[in-house]
Amino acid sequence: MTNPKIAIIGAGLAGLSAAKILNDASIEVTLFESKDTVGGRVQSKKRDGFIFDKGFQVFNPAYPTARKLLDYEQLALRSFDAGVSVLLNDSDFVLANPLRSPDLIPKLLTTRTLLKDMLRFGKYAASQLQDNDVDSEESAYQALSKAGISETFIWQVLNPFLQGVFLNNSLSSSKSFLDFVLRYFLLGKPTLPANGMGQIPLTLANSLTLTDIRLQTPVEKISERVLQTPNGSETFDKIIIATDSLFLQKHFNIDTPDFHFVTTWYHTTDGVRKSLAEGRGLLRVDSDSSRGPVINTVPLSHVASTYAPQGKHLISSSTLSTDCSEEMERTVRNHLSRLYAIDTTNWECVEVIHVPHALNKSSTASIPLKLSHHIYLSGDWTYNTSIEGAMASGVRAATSLLSDIGKAI
How many angstroms separate the Cα of 317 from the Cα of each of 50, 149, 262, 366? Predict the structure, then answer.
């Protein structure tokens, strides 16, 4: 096919990644986006010297597709401290790889009752370093339990960390997703781009030399090869749908999984850095959910100082609730006081972001990758609910399209 006319619907990471692959193959693309900016769920906004990501998100530079498509130098990545700090009863426990964080070994050795579980968990995690792509019907809980890890360690150490990843507190997510998370937990250290998570899609968009990105142009109707927008109808040879799964429900009446939601609270305070979380950019969780609604919290400005104006700290905290009221904010702040062992009375809440469609609840492996000879599907919900999953799904759709039109990659 000579000079095919290609459309991509959705300028999130999946759509941008697909466009990148097609552009690299000298294929021009028209990309339709309903919002006024690219990025989908990966966005940031700036105000008064602060950077607020659309919910708490991190980027793992070990993701293979991201390494191929992104310019890490432009992102100016800033690393979290390795590990997860758990408020366990009234003491601290750090879940970490001792080979990566040797300074934490003395603290790990003080919790000898958990050492056997740590070794078993470490063995299980290390076994996932090789991606074998084997689907499993097991849940995350079943996999961890089968590995011989105690119920106490599973529910008081691992679940408090993983509920912030899975956005549920039942460990009902799949073993495959658990294994993916653990693999990259070992391979790479989570980071933040200096200018916010939204810099990731912006960097990708800026690399597209053969793509016409049409913002604020929603696709109102799709009929085989014809797209209807507020500007009229256009016919394309091939179309990649790179939206969230709600688009499929609306336009094709295809059942897709419901979503988990999350609310992220941003607080600010001043003071000496060491006085907050010992000056470390370390994720903090609570082993006891009855103490408050916060599932994880971290001083983002300890990770990347660019997230807050000079002299200020920015703390991100997430809850699995739709309640964004002032009363809930006080409850969150009280829980943070316990988590950080610091007076939070004067902390100021500077932003609250509720993400209703944060994560698909279950696998969508049964959905086909092509709806027809002309229409391809991508998006993290078709592959793996992560940044890597979104980007890899875009690459997969574009690669399939190129093969179908006889274009060498």
Answer: 15, 28, 10, 34
Environment class of 193 (CB within 10 Å of its CB; exposed 0-12, middle 13-18, buried 19+): buried
Q: Which of 358, 363, 267 is nearest to 321 (CA)?
A: 358
At 115 the pLDDT is 83
- The 10s digit of each residue's pLDDT in 210-226 is 999 999 999 999 988 99
CATH number of the domain to which 375 belongs: 3.50.50.60
Rounded to whole angstroms, the Cα distance separating 277 from 363 reads 36
The answer as to whether 369 is a domain residue is yes
Model pLDDT, residue 393: 95
Give a yes or no: residue 19 inside a domain: yes
Question: What's the pLDDT score for residue 255?
Answer: 76
Contact status, residue 319 vs residue 164, Cβ threshold 8 Å: no
Q: Which two tokens stand for residue 328?
A: 């809930």
**In contact, 26 and 354? CB cutoff 8 Å:** no
Per-residue pLDDT reduced to its tens digit, 167-182: 998 999 999 999 999 9
Structural tokens at position 370: 């092509």
Residue 97 lies in a domain: no
pLDDT at 110: 59
Distances, alpha carbon 185 to alpha carbons 71, 83, 113, in Å: 21, 9, 24
Domain ranges, residue 172: 108-187
Q: Residue 109: pLDDT band by 50, 70, 90 thresholds?
A: low
